[in-house]
Amino acid sequence: MISYPPKELIENPITKIYQNGVLVLPYLEYNAPVDSKGRYFHFDEIKHRLSKQLNSTLVWSLMKEARKRQSQDLYGSFLGKHLVPATLYMSPIIQKAISETDRNTTTAALEWMCNKIGEQKHLDYLLNDLVEDEAISSSQLEGAATTTKVAKDMLKRARKPRSIDEKMILGNFNMMKFAWGNRHKDLTVELIEELHKVGVEGIEDGKYKPGVIRTTDDVVVENNDGEVVHTPPKAHNLNNRLNMLVKWVNESHHDAESADYIHPLVKAITLHFRIGYEHPFHDGNGRVARALFYWYMFKNEFAAFRYIAISLLLKEAPVQYGKSYLYTETDEMDLTYFVDYQCRIIIRAINKFKESYTESVQESEAFNKWLWDSGLYRKLTDKQQAVFQVAKSEKALSFTINNVKDNLGCSYNTAATVLNGLVELKLFEKVKDGREWVYKMIDQKELVKSWKPAKKRPA
Questions:
Q1: Is the pTM above the cut of 0.85?
Q2: Buried b (16+ CB within 10 A) or exposed e, 251-282
């Protein structure tokens, strides 16, 4: 469990850091919202860093006063038993995440990346791997035990799930598609219910109650040791609170000249927190909260978030993810803890996305050179090049006609022609798995042996 902040703060703490008229210098560094490295500490973290000579309550009082001077109230985003407005301090990490988001994830930035690589179909297929990463890792964060490799095989081949864990992953994948498909709509309670239904229906309907807002108070959040770490607000007036949230989300806060300006990234993270805090459903709340974060980013033209897997990194440190909720709840609904932590994750996820893109560009250039040197360039269609490059880079190990049809946005017959053409060229092999054909690339060493560089024509 965490250490709660002192209930009683010291008034005018700056006047208390003098002893016999002499300023006690070690206290001065705490007269600021963040430390020298820009970190926004909760009392649970700061108390372990203090020397024994310093009064922890006085230190905390100094920090709280500095934070209140520089924080903003998020009116319309009310939290807690008494529905007080949440507060937010724009930490250096939050500002950096906003800058990275604006520079790298807008729809315009994504279009530029696609134009730079020069092969839209190819890039789409490669980046689809990152779409799957979010669906898989978000489910694993909630306890799904299926391995990433098996889950990717299920999604790429569009095979039916064989277990509850695989159903969770497929449900999450469908939620992400739903979020993208409904990005132009305003938020409603009904849309939140439908999103939940899409994600959990058919898994364990008695446990999840798909699309049904809870009317009871038997929902709690436990840690891995079975300890209750969060008891959501009462179900009484839950629908009213959700309607207040919906109204706030649908209001425009993106006018730079407005006094209540909120960047879409901060607002999306706040929506994520609010759903997690309210826990409106019997189960599956975390997945819905994260899907709504994506929905809001999509809605505000940050299309590259389709390929940015936040949950993949949250899964690496689930305890810190949980603490970011608790720190906010135990410190007067200060959202900074949660937003700051999410922004740290988002910066890392954007960097991973950029690395994947750079790798894709490099692989594409190397692949085109290989195609030209081998003499295959004129034999492959653009769609075959896309599929072959994905296979060569091992982004996918097997393919089906339906999988290729969905990823390339073509007809079933065209997808079949693409794959069977690769077999005819002796680049792929196919085997029967149940009722469908599964296509795989022939071992690369065998390909190198089989394909020799084309002879140069005499001058």
A1: no
A2: eebeeeeeeeebbbbbbbbbbbbbbbbbbbbb
Q: From CA 38, how far away is CA 381, in angstroms rounded?
A: 52
Tokens of 368: 């085109």
Distances (CA, A) of 75 to 15, 87, 135, 251, 337: 32, 9, 32, 12, 18
pLDDT tens-place string over residues 64-90: 999 999 999 886 666 766 677 889 999
Residue environment code for 374-404, b if the CB has 16+ CB neighbours within 10 A, otherwise e: bebeeebeebbbbbbbbbbbebbebbbbbbb
Q: Total domain count for the chain? A: 3
Torsion of CA 399, 401, 404, 409, to 10 degrees: -170
Q: Is residue 84 one of the residues assigned to a domain?
A: no
- Tell me, letter by letter, the H, E, C secondary structure of 394-447: CCCCCECHHHHHHHHCCCHHHHHHHHHHHHHCCCEEEEEECCEEEEEECCHHHH
Rounded Cα gap, residues 351 and 160, in angstroms: 33
In a domain, 319, yes or no: yes
For residue 52, give every residue at least 6 positions away whose Cβ sits within 8 Å of its Cβ, in sequence order, or none: none
Contact at 8 Å (CB) between 448 and 392?
Answer: no
Q: Provide the residue range defining the domain that includes 414.
A: 393-450
Structure tokens at 404: 């290729």
Residue with tokens 């980046």: 127
Long-range Cβ contact pairs of 36-41 (< 8 A, separation 24 or more): 38/91, 38/92, 38/93, 40/89, 40/91, 40/93, 40/336, 40/337, 40/340
Q: Which pLDDT tens digit goes with each residue over 371-423?
A: 777 777 678 888 898 888 788 766 677 899 998 998 888 999 999 999 999 99
User: Are 165 and 145 in contact, with CB atoms under 8 Å apart?
Assistant: yes
CATH number where 439 lies? 1.10.10.10
Dig out the tokens for 256 from the structure. 């730079």
Q: Is 2 part of any domain? A: no
What are φ and ψ of residue 19, in 5° steps?
-120, 115
